[in-house]
Amino acid sequence: MTRLDSLREVIESFDRLVVAFSGGADSAFLAWVANDTLGSERVMAVTAVSPSLAADERADCARLARSWGLRWTEVATDEMDRAAYQRNDGDRCYHCKDALMDAMVPLAEEVEATVVLGVNVDDLGEHRPGQHAAARRGARFPLVEAGFSKEELRATSQVLGLETWDKPAAACLASRVPYGTTVTVGVLSSVERAEAALRRLGFASLRVRHYEDVARLEVPVGDLQRVLDRRLEVIEAVRRGGYRYVTVDLEGFRSGNLNAALGTSAP
Question: What pLDDT digit, counting tens, does each position of 33-91 carry?
């Protein structure tokens, strides 16, 4: 039995599913396989909308849903109204996923479905308090149950012809804000504008880390020379987010490096 067969077997054990669909490689793969296995009458893909979701990512979810024939909807989540989330300590993601479950559980209960998230086995050893929040509320992780790693799900996505197989990781915008710095709509908007402008310059994998009026840009090491070659354009792009100073991290792009303050790793 292949890993994909195992995943389909896990999915078939459910009557109906509500898939948390962010449009990233993990959730997109899960949504596609669930839809292909159970059909759109038994699967709903749901995208959580809040200031922490970049507009480009939201639009990509809608486009993928149309292209793949997913039954798809959006729900607004209220994490920005929660003081514990805005405070931005090491458990910020817990409060975010708790808000997500507040929005998704009623949808699932209405059709007697199970909420599922695109967590893979590589995520289990990282600092992911959001996983605990979701599991506590009854969410399941089919990719974990089938034993899928990140590399395996990307490889399988490629074999299936899914365009998301090599999509760069795109964690929520709040992941760019150092722990202890208050998360506000203005801060998230600054990060979003700067990153969107850089993507228009052709930088696909990147993070703009927010330090008040200083932006710390992370790109893969292979792109560092390109940043220097286009220095003036990069500066202009980042300043569109309202930053006064633009710095470049010479260590390059590392998902979740802000978690070094916690002695852990994550998005």
Answer: 999 999 999 999 999 999 999 999 999 999 999 999 999 999 999 999 999 999 999 99
Give the C-alpha separation, 267 to 252, whole Å. Answer: 15
Q: How far apart are CA 135 and CA 86, in angstroms?
A: 22
Instruction: Quote the CA–CA distance of 134 and 132 in Å, as a whole number.
Output: 5
Q: Which amino acid is at 191?
A: V
Q: Who contacts 80 (Cβ-Cβ below 8 Å, separation ≥6)?
A: 50, 51, 52, 86, 183, 185
How far is the C-alpha of 28 from the C-alpha of 158, rounded, in Å?
A: 12
Q: What is the pLDDT of residue 123?
A: 87
Total Cβ atoms within 10 A of residue 248: 18
Positions in the chain whose pLDDT score sits under 50: 264-267
> Among residues 188, 243, 198, which one has the least CA distance to residue 218?
198
| C-alpha distance from residue 197 to each of 8, 63, 200, 204, 262 (Å) | 39, 21, 5, 11, 30
SS3 assignment, position 145: helix
Distance of CA 149 to the CA centre of its chain: 16
Is the distance from CB of 119 to CB of 143 less than 8 angstroms?
yes
pTM score, whole prediction? 0.91
Of 122, 71, 79, give the one whose Cα is nearest residue 101. 79
pLDDT of residue 265: 46
